Structures are given as structure tokens and as C-alpha cells.
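retry 2 of 3: previous attempt timed out while embedding magnesium ion. Reduced batch size to 1 and resubmitted. Inputs unchanged:
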Amino acid sequence: MNILEVKNLDVHYGGSRILRGMSLEVPERQVVCLMGRNGVGKTTTLKSVMGLVKLSGGGVALAGEEISKLSSDKRARRGIGYVPQGRDIFPHLTVLENLKIGQIACGHKANGRFDRVYELFPVLKEMLERKGGVLSGGQQQQLAIGRALLTRPKVLILDEPTEGIQPNIIDQIGETIAKLRSEMSILLVEQYLDFAKALGDSFYIMDRGAAVASGPIANLNEEVIRKHLTV
Ligand SMILES: Nc1ncnc2c1ncn2[C@@H]1O[C@H](COP(=O)(O)OP(=O)(O)OP(=O)(O)O)[C@@H](O)[C@H]1O
Ligand SMILES: [Mg+2]
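retry 2 succeeded.
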């Protein structure tokens, strides 16, 4: 079954049409990589799933149920965890406060998920009282992922989690995604090919607002890469 189905999305920013019939499917317990050059509409696709942009056409279904009319917080409560590009943590709140926002946003009481987050990202547990803004980029990314996990997502959406992050933390984030895949489905926007290939089950490549190639990750070969991804 598909946990997430994105069908024929159209999105406009002002007069320009940014998404043009964008569709994709995320099967249960799979990692789907969404790729494409800069500015093709990857982030806009994720924002559409999360309800952060207005659709002029198309729809989004979660576990078979149409959700495009729901507010973002309702979507979070239904089971979509979102880690935005650039991480968006609150710099003046502590690590613990940042984490609690994930939990509050979802409307759940304390429930043991904190332990799971500390197990995945031990560095966060050591820094609970530190302000979010003093963390390194990699630590902030871990915090943003931890915050999303506290909403107990069925599907976790990650927008370029490796962007601007040092290699050893990239490896740690990769290991975390590998661990999470048995618990949830993951939609990953990723420019870093080796990372996508190592973690993905399948891929979609976007160009100018629509998917132009897709398939099992093994089909992401040199020819596809040259045609759609190299600049
Ligand atoms: N709020 C906005 N208002 C107007 N245009 C926007 C807005 N946000 C994005 N765009 C434009 O929409 C297009 C798609 O942007 P989007 O951020 O979805 O691309 P992307 O594939 O995520 O790019 P990147 O790889 O740089 O993150 C781009 O041309 C961008 O300039
Ligand atoms: Mg983007």
C-alpha cells in the first residue's frame, strides 16, 4: 500500500506556475528519494504535502485518505513529520524546548519517544539546556529530525538533510535514516547522489515542476544522472 500519494499537483507563486502536474507515491516502509536540479520544485512539492502552499490543482492522500483540505497541524497529527530545508529550529529556545515543540505540535502527551530520539542522537541529550542557535549545523539537523520524530510520523519528510553538513554527521544521519526505515516511510529530497543511492528504495527526478523520471533506485544510472541531474 502507498502511505502517501501525491497526484497531479499544480502550484502557482504569483503569476508563475511552479508545479505542473507533479505526482509521486511513497509505499509503506520505503525510502523514496526526490531529486532534481536547483529550483525545479522539490521543496514546493514537500510544502504541498504539508499544506504550506495553496494548491491550484491536484491532491494529496495519506494512507488512502484525501488530506489536501486539512491544515498543516492536522496533517502533522495524522502522521506527517516534516524536516524543512534549512532546518528551521528556534535559535533562542533550548534543545529541550525545541524538541517539546514537536511534541506539542502533534498534541501527544509525553510518551517515551524522547528516549528514542536520545538513542538515535546522543549528542542532543548532552545539550538539552543549550540554545538551539549555538549548535553546529549537523547538530541542528539532528535536532530538527528529532523534533519531527516526536510527532510519531507515519511518513517522515526530509528536505536536503545533508546540505551544508560535515561528512561525519552526514554518515550519522544516513545511519539514522537506515534505522528508521523499519518504523516509517521516508520521503527524502537529496542532491547528494551517493547518499540517495545508499538509502533509497526508489527515486523520482523532477524538472520544471513535474516528475520526468522515476523507478527503483538501481535504475538511477549514469545516463539518467547525466540527462537530468548534472548541471
Ligand atoms: N515563496 C516563493 N515565491 C515565489 N517564487 C518562489 C517561492 N518559493 C520558491 N519559488 C520559486 O519556485 C521555484 C521552485 O522552488 P523550490 O524551492 O520548490 O525548488 P527546489 O527544487 O526545492 O530548489 P533547491 O534545490 O534550490 O532547494 C523556484 O524557481 C523558486 O525560485
Ligand atoms: Mg529546495
